[in-house]
Amino acid sequence: MKQKNRQQIALVSCFASLYAIFGLWPLFPVVGTAGKNITVAAIMAPLIGVILGPYIGVLTVLIGGIVGLSMAQIGPFGPLSFLTGVAAAFCSGMLYERRRAICAVVYLILLLIFAFYPVVGPAWLYPYFMWLQIIGFIVLVSPLQSKAVDRMRGNPKSFRGLTFGAATTFFVATLFSHLVGSIMFE
After folding, report:
1. Burial of 31 from C-beta contacts in 10 A (0-12 / 13-18 / 19+)
2. Does residue 68 register a pLDDT over 80?
3. If we measure between CA atoms, which residue out of 142, 59, 130 comes closest to residue 95?
4. pTM of the model
5. Average per-residue pLDDT in the chain?
6. What distance separates the 2 farthest-apart alpha carbons in the chain?
């Protein structure tokens, strides 16, 4: 087996284990679903996407989510609760690899599905509910997101640049996963 393959297997194993363990720690409750919580794993998913890339990151979160299901109670979306983490890892990984166009197209499709979901979509009932997702899309397609990734990939000694880049990228990736979760909730 090649050295790179062994390293990838080791990284997937370590990060999947961390993701599964962080899935046990609640951060705050999910509004509308009694007794269910958003966990620390929600913070890990975009980070895993940036570190491992979109494809290996998705695989890692998928494995960690499945392992986490066997260790903890089922999340707010049943056995598919880990899909929001998969979406965040995919989005942040794609953004970090400078594939913003793919992310923007998928984000827009998800936003339209969420907005115009039959009968219960926010566009029909509460259009003002979508303001944050729209801001996320604007940030995604604006030059701000490109600058954020450039700062993350650029000078690692610049704490400000790294913080700005990570915060912007993780903001968009989290809203991307929020759209997936909202569609599942609808």
Report:
1. exposed
2. yes
3. 142
4. 0.89
5. 88
6. 55
